[in-house]
Amino acid sequence: MTSIFDQFEQASQISQRAAPVSEPMTSSGYINMQMDDNTPMFSKQKMNFNPSDLITHVAVASDYLVLAMANGKLFRLDLKMPDQHEEIHYAKFVQPNTKLSNIFLDPLGYHLLLAFAARNKDGNPELMYLHRSRSKLKSVNKSKNYEVTEVGWNYENKSSSTTGPILLGTTQGHLLETELEADNEKMFSGSQQYWRQIFDIGKGSDTPITGIQFHRVSNTTKYFIFVTTPTRLYQFIGNAVFTDNKPSLQTIFYSYLTNTETGFQEIPSSLKYSRLQFYFDRNNTPKTFAWLTEPGIFYGQLDPTSQQNSNSLFTQGELISYPPERIDPEKAETAERTPLAFVLTEFHAILMFSDKVKAVSLLNQELVYQDTYSEAHGKLKNIVKDPARRTIWAVTDKAVFRYKVIREERNVWRIYCDKEEFDLAKEYCYNNPAFIDIINVKQAELLFTKGEYEKSAQIFADTQSSFETVCLKFLEVDQINALKVYLSRRLDALSEDDKTLISMIVIWMTELYVSQLGMLRRTGKDDTEEFHQIQSDFELFLLQTKVVKCMQHVKSVIYDLLSSHGDKQNLIKLTIINEDYENVIEQNILKKSYLEALKILQGLQRPDLFYQFAPILMEETPKHTVNALISQGPRLIPSKLLPAFLACENDMEHVSEIIRYLEFMLQNFNVKDNAIHNYLLTLYAEKDEPALMRYLSRQGQDLLMVNFDVHYALRLCREKGLSEACVKLSALLGLWEAAVELALDVDVALAKSVASLPEESEMQQRLWLTIAEHVITKNQDLKEAMSLLEECPLIKIEDILPFFSDVVTIDHFREPICQSLQEYNTQIEELKAEMEDATKSAECVRAEIQSFRNRSVVVSVSDACCLCDIALLLRPFYLFPCAHRFHSDCLLTEIQPTLGPARRNKLSDLQRQLSVLSNIELSVVTSNGLPLREVLKNEIDDIVASECIFCGEYMIACIDKPFIADEDWDRVMKEWE
C-alpha cells in the first residue's frame, strides 16, 4: 500500500509558485551559472483516506493527527503507522445542548482537550479531556461556567500521563491555571481539581482570548507569557514559584493586577478572532512570533531580556500587510482579504483563506507561493503545524493535505542584501562564493556612496570586481588611504606565484606612502600625528613577508623611487630590511656625508662593510672613523683593517688615530696578531720613540712571549738610529756582548742593566768585565772601578787589575785586595770543615758494616711463614732484619705481581736457567770466583728479597688497596655472621 506521504493530488491540485526575483551579478568574476534551485519551495500532498463525514476541526502534534467530524466522531491516526486509525463517538459523552467549538492537542500528542459551547440558553459550556491511550472522554467539572477558547500548553512537560501546569483562556477574558492527569480521577472532580483564575483581561466584558503562549527564560525561574484578544497582544513576565519542580504561574501576574493598561500592543480590528503563532529554533527555544489581525500580521523577534529597558518582550516589531488580491468586480462583495488561519515558519507566514493558501515572506512581504483548492474538496477549515515534527497540515471539509517546505532560506540572502543587512545575508549564503561576492560588491558600493571609503575598500578587496575599476573609483575621488587599504588587502590575498601583480602592488603602494610623506614634509607637517601614523604604517608594510621577498627582485626600482623623493630616512630603513646596506653607504660617501655613513655602519654591525669602506672613511675623517672602529670592539679583526691604515696619508693626524685604535685593541682585547704588533712598532719607530720604549718594556724579555718579529724590529731600529731600542732588542735576542757594547755608547747605566739580565753567571761576569774594561780604560777612575766590584759580586779585584795602567801602585788596591784574601780564607776554612764531616761519616759507616758481620738471628722450630702460617723450617726461607720470615716460594708468589715488566722477565729467565741447566753447567765457576748456581741464586735473591714486603715500599704502594678483596668479600661476610 502506498504511503499517504508519497501520493500526490493529481488533477484537483492547482499550484502556483511565484517566480524568484532575478538580479544580475554585479561585477562578479564568477561564471554566471544557474544559481536558483528549481525545486519548489512549497508543495502539498493529499492523504489517501476519505473521512466518514465533513471535517470540522483538526489538531496534530508529534506525528499524531486528530480530526473532529460533523457526525460527532473523532478520527485519530498515528502518522508513523498510517494503516491503523480509530474513530471515537465523542457526542455521546457531552450534553445535547452543546456544540464542539475547538480541539487542542498538547505538543507531545498525548493530551486532547475538546471545548464545547452552549447552543442555547439551556446549555452550559463544557471542557472534555481525552488521553491518547483512552477511548472515553472525561469532563473537567470546574469548567462548567467557562467557555474555553484557547489553551497555553506547557512545552517543558515531558510526561505522557499529566499535562503539567497549563493556561486556559475563555470567551470572557479569564485566564485560568490548571493541571490534568489522565490516571487520577480526583483531578477531574469539582472538589479536588487544581483550578484557579489568575487574571482577568476582559474585566467583565466579552473579550475572548484567542492565543496563549508561555515559556521559561533559559534555565531561570522567570517566565514570559503572551496572550492575545481580537485587538490586543498582552505581554507578561515574572518569576514563578516552584513546588515539587512544578511552576505556579499566578505569581507572575501580581504586578499586573493593579495596572492592566500597560504591557500590550493594540491593533484595531473588526474581526472576532485573531491567531498567535511562535517559531522555535532547533533547540526548541522560541525565536519569533506572529499575530494575525485584520490589518496584517504583527511580526517580531522574541527577546525576553529586552524588557529590562522597556515594557516589550520583542524587538523589530512590524506589521506585515497581506498580499493584494485581484478582485473580480462581480464578486467584490465576497472577496476575502483577511486569512482565517496561518502557520509561522522561519522566514514565511503561510496564510489560509477559505479557498486558497498563500505564503508570504516575512522579510520583504512578497508573495512567494499561492495554492488554490478545488471546490471538490470543500472549504478550508484550518491550517496547523506540528510543533515537534514541524510539519504543516491543511484541512478542508473532505480532505487532509500535508505541506512540504524545502529550503525556504534559499533566497533569504538576496532579501537581506536588498535590505542592506549584509551580515545576515552572508550568514544565509552558506559559503556560496558567488552569492557572497554579490553581497560584498553591493555592500562596498553602498559604503562608497556613503563616503566610508576605507571600509568600502576593505570589502572591495574581498570581491571579484575588476582590479582596475576599483582602483579608478578611489583615484577619481582622491581617496589615497582607501586605495592603500584596497591594495594591501589584495596583496594579502595573492599567492606567492602571482609575482608580477605582487611587484606592481608593492611598487604602487610604496609610491603612495612616499608621496604622502613627502607632501606632509613639504608643508611642514613632518612632526604631526598624521605623519607619524603614515610612517608607522609604511614601516609595517615594508616588514610584511611578501613585501620583503618581492624587494629582492624590485629593490633597484624602489631605491630609485625613494631617491627621487629625497626620502633618505626610509631608504636607509629599507636597505636595513633588505640587508642591502652597501648602496646607502655608498650614496652617503658620494655626498660626503661621512658621519652619516659611519652612523649607519655602527648600527648595522656588519664587519665586512667596515673593511670595505674603512679606507676612504679613514682617509677623510680619521678621528670619527677610529671612534666607530673602537665602538665595534672585538667584532672587527684588526689585521683586516691594515690595508685601510696603510692607504692613509702618513701624517701625524692619521698616524696618531691609527696608534690610538691599535693601542685600544691591544690593551682591552689582548690582540696577539704578529702583523698588528709589527705595524704598531713601525709607527712607534717612525713617530714616537718614548712610546716605542714603553711598548718594548711591556712585551718583556722572554723571546717566546713577545708578539712582534724581533729581527724585523732590530733591523728597523738600526735604520732609524734608535740605539736604546736596539740595545733592548739585542738583549732580547741573547746578543749580550753586542747589546752591552751598544749600550756603553749610550749610557753606562743602560749597559749595567743589560749585564744583569743573563741567567748564566759566567755570561754576567764576562759582561761586567767588558763594562769594567770600558770604564777603566776610558777614565782610569779607581773609585768607579771599585763601585763595579760592589755592584757585581761575580768579578774580583784580580779580574780588573789587568785593565789598569802600570803606573798605578798597589796601595790604591790595598782594601779590595785584603777583602779578597779574607774571602779566600773563609772559603778554605769551610772546605776544611766539610772534609772533617766526611771523614767522620765514613768511619761511622765502616763501624756499622763491621757490626752487621757479627749480627745473628735465632730461628726456632715453632716459627712460621708470615704468609702461609706453615712451619718456616720445612722449606727454604728468607729472614729479614725486621724479623719478618717468608718461605722462598711464598715470597716469590707474593712479590711477582708487584714487579715491573723488565724485572719480571729477568726473574723468569733466571728461574728457567736454574731448571734447565745441568748440575755440571751450574757448577762451573764464573769470573767472580763463584759457581753459576750461586750467581743465579744471588741474582734471584736481589730481585725477590731486596726488601721486606711488609716494611718496604711495596706496602706503601698498596696503601689504597682494600684489606679484603672483592672476590673474598661474600665469604668473609658469611664468616662474621
Q: What is the helical fraction, as a range of percent?
A: 40-55%
Q: What's the overall geometry?
A: elongated
Distance between the termini: 100 Å
Strand content: 15-25%
- Major beta sheet, strand line-up: 1-28-27-26-25
Compute the number of helices: 32
What is the typical, i.e. mean, pLDDT? 83
By DSSP, the count of extended strands is 33
Low-confidence stretches: 1-35
* Class based on secondary structure composition and strand pairing: alpha+beta
Largest beta-sheet characterization: 5 strands, antiparallel
Round the Cα radius of gyration to an integer and report it: 62 Å
Question: How would you explain this protein's 3D organization?
Answer:
By secondary structure, this protein is an alpha+beta fold. The protein contains 32 helices and 33 strands. Strands 1-28-27-26-25 form a 5-stranded antiparallel sheet, with no helix packed on it. Strand 21 (275-280) and strand 22 (286-292) form a beta hairpin. The longest helix has 40 residues, at 814-853. It is elongated. Mean pLDDT is 83; it is low at 1-35.
